[in-house]
Amino acid sequence: MDHDIQLISDGDGLAVIGDPAAVERFLVSEGLPSKDLGLPRLSSLLSGGATVAQAGSEIAANSGRWVKLSKETAQLIQKHGLRESSKTGLSTGVLKGNHGQIKGFVQFAKAPAAHLANPALLAGAAGIMAQLAMQQAMDDITDYLAVIDKKVDDVIRAQKDAVFADMVSVDFVVEEAMTIREQVGRVSEVTWSKVQSTTMALARTQVYALRQLDALAEKLENEAKVGELAKTIKDAESKVQEWLAVLANCFRLQDAIAVLELDRVLDASPDELDRHRLGLRAARHKRLELITSSTERLMTRMDTAAGLANTKVLLHPTASRDVVHSSNKVATAVVDFQGRLGIEHDRQSLQAKRWTDAATEVTDKAREAGADGVDAALRLGNETFGLAKSATGKLGRLTERALRQRKDEKPDEQA
Question: Looking at the record's lineage, which domain of life comes first (predicted)?
Answer without folding.
Answer: Bacteria
